Amino acid sequence: MVIFEQATIADTAVKEFDIILNSQTPANLVNSTKLMFKDIFRYGKCMGRADYWYGILGLSLLTVAIVIGLVFCISLASRITQYYIIQALVYMVIFISVTGIISLFLMGLSAAIRRLHDIGMDGAWILLQFIPFGNIILLVFMCQPTVMENNRYRQESQSSFGKKIYSIKGLVPVIVLCMGLVGTMLFYSVVTLTATTDDVGSTELYYDSLDDDY
User: Measuring CA to CA, how many Å separate 173 from each of 4, 22, 103, 130?
Assistant: First the structure.
């Protein structure tokens, strides 16, 4: 009976250990990039070094693809003016691209703060990227190994506002889409203003050339 109880306890311990190990997916390009998407608004957690750099690689590849698609759509929209359906599709792709760029920025920002927490540093150190040579110092921080002992960030300290965001199902995508809509409107405004300025400048040069001829 005692042997049977000991075996049961040992089996339970092994199962619990397996559950703990399997609670986090292994760090690789796909899993770490998915983790970036999942924790886009989570600033109170920690992020391991391998997950961070795999995720940054994934975000970099997505950024290159989005920028290429955005440039292609802008050039295509400027050439096609008579087919309104095609233009609408192009504008939709531009909206998706701008939303993607904003999302990638937010993912990288939150991931950097979680990486700082993982080495026991406050997330405010992310502000180093806005001073000269600060990015070099921040890069050194991002390469540091995980700190387990005396690290007050080991337990998640997500703010109450962040917990409310994640407690409402589907709210995170809605927030991202709204930010993308605002960003797209600002993008259109800048492009339209630039095009208008170029047209005015071209018109002035045209009339100046006529005055010189006469």
Answer: 51, 27, 10, 28
d(CA 48, CA 44): 14
Rg (CA), the chain: 25
Instruction: List the structure tokens of 57.
Output: 């690689």
CB neighbours of 14 closer than 8 A, spacing ≥ 6? Answer: none
> pLDDT of 163-199, one tens digit each?
777 777 778 888 888 888 888 888 778 777 776 665 5
Prediction pTM value: 0.71
C-alpha span between 134 and 17 (Å, rounded): 41
Q: Report, as an integer, the average pLDDT of 120-134.
A: 88
DSSP 26: P
Q: Are 45 and 114 in contact (CB under 8 A)?
A: yes
